[in-house]
Input
Amino acid sequence: MDDITDHSIDAERPYLLLILATTGFLGCLSLVLGTLIAPLFVSDYDRVADTISDLAAGEMEILMDIALYGFAAGLFAVALASAHAHLGGVGWSIGVLSLAVLGALVVVVGARNEYGDGDSDGVVIHIYLVYGLGVFFLLAPLCMASGFGRSHAWAKWTLLALAGVWAVATPAFFMLPTGIDGAFERFLGLVACSLVCTMSWVFFKRGLDAAKH
Output
């Protein structure tokens, strides 16, 4: 899905890429730690049956909100790194925009407390945000895999494999019984983090290579 063009690593700012890639890693760490720590402060929370969204509502919502904002920062950082080290044509540009949209969606998910607490007042958009996450977490790797594969073939196939898992697992999530959807949502979260970490690693390596020049 990508029109590959030449791109010189000499034009890239190494420390910018290193900082942005590290932020991508830290964003994923934020999400993982949030899903591990927040349940400790929520009474009667079931890690298998209750979703991550349930942690972001109620008295201790700030813990999961911070974790989500951290993940959003990681997504924005990878989007910036992708724009700086532009490794493709139109397809890559679509991927860059997809990452930026994902960051915005995660921010809104954390900011709007209309889930997990039975809130139905006003305009409830959480389900549409979830649909958006489903679409753009698929679109970004599909559009950018070829570009990443220019110098890191493993990254291309890793992204395509993760996109395949995402494409199958995301629709399945909506058909699961509520007794296990929490555990499955955590699995999807790990897939999303794996996508971001794969991209972050390539940018980190490019930053190191650029520094040597």
User: Anything to note?
Assistant: The CA atoms of residues 51 and 185 lie 7 Å apart. The mean pLDDT is 87. Helices lie at 14-37, 61-84, 90-111, 126-148, 153-173, 181-212.
